[in-house]
Amino acid sequence: MKKTYKIEVDCANCANKMEEAAKKTTGVKDAGINFMTLKMWVDFEEGAEPAAVMREVLKNCKKVEDDCEIYL
Amino acid sequence: MNRKQKKVFVRIIAAALCTIALVLLPLGNGPLNLLFLIPYLIIGYDILLKAGKGILNRQIFDENFLMAVATVGAILLGEYTEGVAVMLFYQIGELFQSYAVGKSRRNISQLMDIRPDYANVEKEDGSFEKSDPDEVAIGTLILVGPGEKIPIDGVVEEGNSSLNTSALTGESLPREVKAGDEVISGCINLNGVLRIRTIKEFGESTVSKILDLVENASSRKSQSENFISRFARYYTPAVCYGAIALALLPPLGRMLFDLAPEWRVWVFRALTFLVISCPCALVISIPLSFFAGIGGAGNAGILIKGSNYLEALSKAGCVVFDKTGTMTQGVFEVIGIHTTGMEEDRLLEYAALAESYSSHPISRSLQSAYGKDLDKSRLSKVEEISGNGVAAFIDGRPVAAGNEKLMARQGIACETCAEAGTVVHMAVDGAYAGYILIADKLKPHAKEAIAALKKAGIRRLVMLTGDREEAAKQTAVELGISEAYSGLLPGDKVDKVEELLRKKGRKEQLIFVGDGINDAPVLSRADVGIAMGALGSDAAIEAADVVLMDDDPVKIAKAVRIARKCMRIVYENIYFAIGVKALCLILGAVGIANMWMAIFADVGVMVLAVLNAIRALSVKKL
Lengths: 72, 622
Description:
Chain A is of the alpha+beta class. Chain A has a single domain (2-71), classed as Alpha-Beta Plaits. Chain A has helices at 12-24, 50-64, and strands spanning 2-8, 28-34, 39-44, 69-71. In chain A, helix 1 (12-24) packs across helix 2 (50-64). Chain A is globular and about 35 Å long. The model of chain A has no long low-confidence stretch (mean pLDDT 87). Chain B has 4 domains: 1-111; 119-148 and 152-204, Calcium-transporting ATPase, cytoplasmic transduction domain A; 305-323 and 443-564, Rossmann fold, CATH 3.40.50; 329-441, Calcium-transporting ATPase, cytoplasmic domain N (3-Layer(aba) Sandwich), CATH 3.40.1110. Chain B has 20 helices and 22 strands. In chain B, the strands form 4 sheets. Chain B has a 7-stranded mixed beta sheet with strand order 10-22-21-20-11-18-19, sandwiched between helices. In chain B, strands 2-1-3-9-4-7 form a 6-stranded antiparallel beta sheet, with no helix packed on it. In chain B, helix 15 links the parallel strand 18 (460-464) and strand 19. In chain B, helix 7 packs antiparallel against helix 9. Chain B is elongated and about 115 Å long. Chain B starts with a helix and ends in an 8-residue tail after the last helix. Chain A binds chain B through residues 4, 10-13, 16, 19-20, 32, 34-39, 41, 63-64, 66-67, and chain B through 50, 53-54, 57, 59, 62-63, 94, 97-98, 101, 105, 108, 215-216, 218-219, 221, 229, 232-233, 278-280, 283-284, 287-288, 290-291.
């Protein structure tokens, strides 16, 4: 299942780091960030609960870039 | 500027004024220099805070942390002005970057500003009410006044007007519409008032499909983008280890040879390294270039579904295209009827009836040539044989209408026709009855389009068609194409494209251009599939990688030129940014470049790279 979220981040490299962090989160099959449109798409693993996974994704993103936001 | 940016701007001004004042004051070498901490903290407090958080989260290669180490280090070494200035310029660079990106984001979204805000829905008492387009049901009557956008696809019930389609197609000539015409959402109504009955929901309307496509473009990343993300991942750690090595190894080496270690010099050079450790210029300018390129193309009526396709387009070496509907108008006319004895009208009537269930352009031309109403109840047991034709019973008589293959299939010998055009052979009661000759006209810009592609350096142009050899040959000669394959079924086209894919050069990309009808498998098999005249054809928008909103084949070459310009800018930025950084690292290591030069180079490269990236947006003259 694939979902798209709006994000807020200031620099392009930070977006790359967020993308890496999101990809490494359990329950995420694949993820990507489009810095220009400030959107993140997440492809969830079979059976994963998107809401719970996204809370983890946000937590992991905050670790690599404190000044970021994902609008869940 | 938004609030966040304004705040940084004020801090930059305050810190700059404060620094200038302190530089002019005679502070001497004493503890008065600690006054420099005032501007330093004004401009750098947030970086220091973020650096602290970064350490807590074990992100030691965080650029905030590295900036903090470099500037704090400089201050500890007594280089107060350098410490403050580096922080100051770093912030100026960041502010510029966020401003420029925000601005181009808005510019590009304005280009694609086709989203309608409301629909005027007719109520039962005849009055109109502004509603959210999302809530309008199929079959609702809506009113579109002059200057308003058509919010939802529909059919005109009443009114005449001309429509501006330029936001969708890039075509500046208005399109005339009258009652009964189908209109697509996103067009702007120029003069008359139109009453439109909607035929789709907003979510399924053209405008929603296009916006969805544009917004999700570049979710598929190009090789260059992936290269840059990988590069960024290794660049920062590499420079940091380089800095540590530079701080430790030369002094230790000098100590071995009984020289003064000069710790101060080498540590300072190492700090210079940290200043250049952020890969920002590269990381920002590459996606920005692609975004600008895709935005500019969108404005010209060329929708590109991702930066990977933009990259592939720029390497186009072989362009394969379908004939009907791509190079020709796809509007057929009956130009001759040849019978073996039956009356011409009767033959035409049978042909029109047999093909009456098909919406293929050929069948439509037969029906319009016949011109009278068709009584479909006379028709039974209709069997469409893909790529061959139709077999059916009319008034109980077996009739077959189709190409030579159909006749061969039915074991009927047929005459050959030397004239160019599409031939529909007819068999009635199992015997050959004659043929109907149908011809298609070239699009007005077709020749120009081929010439433009040749000029753009496309090595190989191939035309594929389901048509007869004679028709294919004549079109190919008129267009100036040497390679044409005729008589292909939809499946054969896939095989042919696969064969061409095997033969192409390793770095070349194969482009297939079709009108999106029946082409879906080939569109997806080619490296880049271009669908043209896609307004209103959902299937084409889904299947293709690049969508030409109108059906002008000249846009194929334009798409290639836009892609090439964008890729040129991308490579310029990659080489320029990496080159300047490498140069600074070398000069910094040998002590020629100091921290001042490093930060100027860093911010300067970023500014130039961003400005260069925005150039990709202008595609008008291409």
